[in-house]
Amino acid sequence: MRTIEHWLTSPWRRSGVAALAGALPVLAFPAPALWWFAYVALVPWILLARSAPTARRAAYDGWCGGFGFMVAVHHWLLPSLHVFIFLIAGLLGVLWAPWGLLVRRFLCAAASPARGAAALLVLPSAWLAVELVRSWQGLGGPWGMLGSSQWQVGPALRLASVGGVWLLSFLVVAVNVAVAVLVSVRASRIPAVASLVATAAATSAAWAWAPRPDVDGSVRIAVVQPGVVGGTDGPDRRFDREEQLTRRLVGQGADLIVWGESSVGFDLDQRPDLARRIAALSRQTGADLLVNVDARRSDRPGIFKSSVLVGARGPTGQRYDKMRLIPFGEYVPARSVLGWATSVGRAAGEDRRRGTEQVVMNVGHGLRVGPLVCFETAFPDMSRRLAGDGADVLLGQSSTSSFQGSWAPGQHASLAALRAAETGRPMVHSTLTGVSAVYGPAGQRLGPWLGTGASTAHLYEVPLAHGITPYVRYGDWPVHGTLLVLAALCVGEGVRALRLRRTGPQPRAPRARTAHGSPVRPGR
């Protein structure tokens, strides 16, 4: 142990170890999908920060670990962002510096048992606060939230229906803290065991008592995934391929057919021939088609990404314009300053325009759907709002064609399981190039994943449920609870500092002297 501590005295070596420790949780996400690893992945990072010789070093350990975490969960963006990924990770990594400070404060060798017990509440709350800040769309959105690694675990999905992905993140971090306490803080082992028991009890209670989605019908929804189509005439060739695949669905009784993001590269008002071809497909299959138009609009300035519903007579007029755009991918923040990014990576040459409101569409057969475009499926508040507005099915239209061969397509597809479980609504994740997937109202996977090598159309039997989950009803209450914990911590620290200032050591009075100038000695 002393050899390791001596080796870590080098600031550079310690920073590298912190970055590697922060990167470990990525193994819990797809493609590795080692979901169980999430419950111990933070332990090395916690042990490193608690052993920091100074508070400043603990903050650096938090920062470097945050840098490693952000690079790891977004490494697939490297071809697009190049050096920017390290700059962004360095900036966002700062969010974990206070977390590193709190780890040392509550778990250092000199910490009292009461402080070790408090760590089991404070540290998960601080982690959740970091996830809250970085989930802002302008900072890249809630990609890689620790709780989303539990997308295929039944009990975790039940918890998501109660408190969303936020509750999962809190409990995963709480387990990591408890394990770290058991390993390193002997005086606080009893509270750590109690925390693990409480987590197991909460999971069991949610499994037993949280309302289950009551299936009251089903609908047949088809996903059309054309696969990779390149070349300068890619939009035309992709449309042809989608048309061919959709014809395979004739006679199969589909109620809705969904194409992926940017499936139509032309404004349908400017290309009425394409609108007529889509309408013909609707008549042949007996189902409306939800396509996604990525083009400059004829009725207003700028390029929009829009979900457009097309029926047997053409576009129905129901349209959703994407609201939350991807930084650098669809717009360049502060383009006047960072516009040179377009010459380094694959940053957007022109900013897309934003929509102004979410839309629930009526697609016939009594079915109401709520579309989301691309990484909007990562935002739990958007799917929650659609469910509250009456959507029967959530629909995600995505592409991920720029990231074939990376971990991004599988991780993106897994997010739909969380959104389904949170809202009690089935979710269809339809992409151009995979991975496409469909989940039931409890977050369970339905039918096959359509991988990145598939070019096909597949019809899914999707169960419908219309109950209201606690998460839809009460919203992000775990976030509000953790903010209260942190507010109480700040107030407590303020009161403590004020008390220390008032009761601190007083300046010594000068010693009394005798008439001869000699100091009076005590006891004389």
Explain what the structure shows.
Helix content is 45%, strand content 15%. It has 524 residues and is an alpha/beta fold. The strands form 2 sheets. Strands 5-4-3-2-1-12 form a 6-stranded mixed sheet. A 6-stranded mixed sheet has the order 6-7-8-9-10-11, covered by helices on one side. Strand 8, helix 15 and strand 9 form a beta-alpha-beta unit. Helix 4 crosses helix 7, helix 8 packs across helix 17 and helix 14 packs parallel to helix 15. The model has no long low-confidence stretch (mean pLDDT 89).
Summarize the structure.
The protein is an alpha/beta fold. Helices cover 45% and strands 15% of the residues.
Largest sheet: 6 strands, mixed
Task: Write the H/E string, N to C.
Answer: HHHHHHHHHHEHEHEEEHEEHEHEEEEHH
Strand content: 15-25%
Classification by helices and strands: alpha/beta
Termini separation = 54 Å
Low-confidence stretches: none
Give the strand line-up of the largest sheet. 5-4-3-2-1-12
How many E strands?
12
Compute the average pLDDT. 89
Shape type? globular
Count of helical segments? 17
Estimated helix fraction? 40-55%
C-alpha Rg (nearest Å): 27 Å
SSE topology sketch:
Blueprint: H1 2-7, H2 11-23, H3 43-50, H4 55-73, H5 78-81, H6 84-93, H7 97-107, H8 113-134, H9 154-184, H10 189-209, E1 215-225, H11 234-247, E2 256-259, H12 272-285, E3 288-296, E4 303-311, E5 314-321, H13 335-338, E6 361-362, E7 368-373, H14 380-388, E8 393-398, H15 408-423, E9 427-431, E10 436-439, E11 445-450, E12 456-465, H16 470-474, H17 477-503
Parallel strand pairs: 1-2, 2-3, 7-8, 8-9
Antiparallel strand pairs: 1-12, 3-4, 4-5, 6-7, 9-10, 10-11
Helix pairs in contact: 2-4, 3-4, 3-9, 4-6, 4-7, 7-8, 8-9, 8-17, 9-10, 9-15, 14-15
